[in-house]
Amino acid sequence: MKKNIAGTEVDVNEEGYLTDMSQWNENIATAIAAEEGVGPLNEGHQKVIQYLRAQQAKGAALTIRSMGKSGVVTTKELYDLFPGGPLKKSSKIAGIPKPVGCI
Fold this sequence. Notes:
With about 100 residues, the chain is mainly alpha-helical. It has one domain (about 1-95).
């Protein structure tokens, strides 16, 4: 399904997650963050987003626990940066698929 985000036509699934990581850019991240009630995106958000994209590229399974152990952010910081569903929201903003463990 197609969706216009930040003036760019992208492919998304029924939940609004990008289905093609290569279509992602900073403007799209900012627009999705605003839709999700997150932001403005700061350095902490950017660190999480870049980490998630790198992990996704490696095929690593993402969980809140693994994020907390990553050294990028603590679990508390992740919840503070992305309130109300930290891994779900940060993954959506990062332009990667929703992690398997997220409802």
